[in-house]
Amino acid sequence: MKLPIVTAFVAAAAVLTSVPAAAASDLGRPDPAALSAAIRDLPDKDTTGALVRVTGDSGSWSGTSGESDVRTHAPVRPDGFFRIGSTTKVYTAVMVLQLAQEHRIDLEQPVQRYLPGVLPADYPPIPVRTLLDHTSGLPSVDIPGLYEPKWILAHRYEHWSPRRVVDTALRHPIDFQPGTAQKYTNTAYVTAGMLVEKVTGKSYSRNLRERITAPLGLGHTYYPEDDPRLPNPAARGYLDVGDKRIDVTEMNQSIPGAAGAIISTAEDLDKFITGLFQGRLLGPAVMPRLFAVPDVPMFDGGGRASYSQGLMKLSLNGITVWGKTGSRYGYASGIFATCDLSRIVAYSVNPTVKSPDGQPLIVQKIADAASRSLPKE
């Protein structure tokens, strides 16, 4: 049974994005054979382990594969912690939207009003909402060597302030006029995190606790600050460097910060997106923004926009889902759900090769399998 607010926001999302409100209501049960096959035969040359959790009104399934530690050969645990990477952006977007509904931020006002002196003087006014849907035009973070294994290992324990990270991007001209195109960047979300801290006078981690994890009872979700460790249980993360496989589990996450530093579990990701879609974090005035994809082109010429103010929209095997992927060195994860919560998918895998351009092949297999259904009985 749907809560009244869920019905309302799904209907609103359908109007804003042309997504049929009942598109997922005919789903059959998850296909356990397809899901098992998607994560079979780990570890392999590219991935050491994986966990998948499927829940929702249409049925549930969970499974793990591979090793959580290549030295001890311990199996992957379904309750393990992992770095959620860019899924952090959803939490940051929720904080900004909460501040908007509290009338502490006007989403149409420029970022420069709330963070004076941060952006270059020759940049145009950048509405706050454009930070959330990647239409701000802000250039990408530009840290030479950021995707090079040797640089990663040499700088893995360094602290970077949000301002230092953003300043690496702001050396460059703005990419395009705000609102005219979409380009996915961490710059916008690190800036959004700075905005949250400035407006509230509280740290990002405290905002996360007070605004999201405490209200939803997420006891295994937190922002690590400068702590490079993962708590137990956790699958180790590895990176192939030449002919060696290096353990990169410990790593300071201050570079991605509000764009990618949160640590969580599959169960907590499930609880988060469920609570979010049920209207427990945002009211009906701002909820439709999560499902409103701007009608603009991608800046790189790769088709039309697919990100809303916080989420991304995907269509797989005829099912429309909303959520977010994330990756950090040694970790690739994600959380997706249909609007009516009939299908929720959380996963984490441990790739050994960092891919700045996309998700590992195993993630594509998981996505395909998780969007398949058995016929209804």
UniProtKB/TrEMBL annotation:
The keyword Hydrolase applies. Keywords: Hydrolase, Signal. Residues 37-356 form the Beta-lactamase-related domain. Pfam families: Beta-lactamase. Residues 1-23 form the signal peptide. GO terms for molecular function: hydrolase activity. It is an enzyme of class 3 (hydrolase). InterPro entries: AmpC-like (IPR050491), Beta-lactam-related (IPR001466), Beta-lactam/transpept-like (IPR012338). Its EC number is 3.-.-.-. This is Serine hydrolase domain-containing protein. It comes from Amycolatopsis speibonae.
